[in-house]
Amino acid sequence: MKKIAIAIHGGAGTLLKGIMTPDKEISYKKSLETALNAGYKILENKGNAVDAVTEAVRILEDSPLFNAGKGSVFTNAGSHEMDASIMNGENLEAGAVSLISGIKNPILLAKNIMQKSEHVFLAGTGAMEYANLLGYKLEPEDYFYDDFRYNQWQEIKDSDNFQLDHNVQKDSKFGTVGAVACDFEGNVAAATSTGGMTNKKFGRIGDSPMIGAGTYANNNTCAVSCTGTGEFFIRGVVAYDVSCLMEYKGLSLKDAADEVVQKRLISIGGDGGLIAVDAKGNITTPFNTEGMYRASIDTHGTQKLDIYK
């Protein structure tokens, strides 16, 4: 039996059947399937988990359907500020980037930070300087422009409100993307990427680039990528909390993830979900919202693709 497994997500939230058009639903599922299969192919060819999650997230960043990379939301200033992170469960190495603009694939920069720098987390102008040093080409603003995202921003740009896609009940595009994987060697990895909140101000950063909050990986426990209202995931140190329950309480992957998402997160008012995989290839994808874009291929090679509960 193959040990390899992979799971991806494209955001959690108010995803009610009937709100989205059938054509939109097909588009989302096709994008998820493309990213999933690309990551799985790397694992099938004896590639490592880090490369698999990177490729899956990169493809989702290239899709305007999700709030990451090309589909990133507008800030209060009318710009795009993107975040991403990645972690290798084999050696606990990690890379993260925040508040960057013009970078087509933030996840690639996060991976470079992990593998080529002596740091874990770079942000803002410093992160852009590092990207320039590595020869990254900056995309023009119109590459990231999307009519839906622009109209979404126009509705609230003159207010003090900010908006997560998954809190709005309408036919809309949803958020953060992520991937977790287990390779043939039993190594796990996690990656997450996001464009943040519509109309965000003051350099707001969510959980996605924060190791332990939105992303975590450890071969002794699991790999986790989160999506939801970032402030609560930061306060709950959600990704690491799942790992902690496995390491110190001996809980299974599913029981640990359910405890965090269905109990601990809810107890502080948090909404969202996560995807997780352990070193045996077990997968779980709990969420406490109406739905979560998610797809996976387990150790038996069985593919699942879901949006709603």
TrEMBL record:
GO terms for molecular function: hydrolase activity, acting on carbon-nitrogen (but not peptide) bonds, in linear amides; peptidase activity. It comes from the Bacteria. Pfam families: Asparaginase_2 (PF01112). The active site is at T176 (nucleophile). The record marks G175, T176 as: Cleavage. CDD domains: Asparaginase_2. Substrate binds at R204, I205, G206, D207, T227, G228, T229, G230. It comes from Salegentibacter salinarum. Gene3D superfamilies: (Glycosyl)asparaginase (3.60.20.30). One of its GO terms (biological process) is proteolysis. The keyword Protease applies. InterPro entries: Ntn_hydrolases_N (IPR029055), Peptidase_T2 (IPR000246). The keyword Hydrolase applies. Keywords: Autocatalytic cleavage, Hydrolase, Protease. This is Isoaspartyl peptidase.
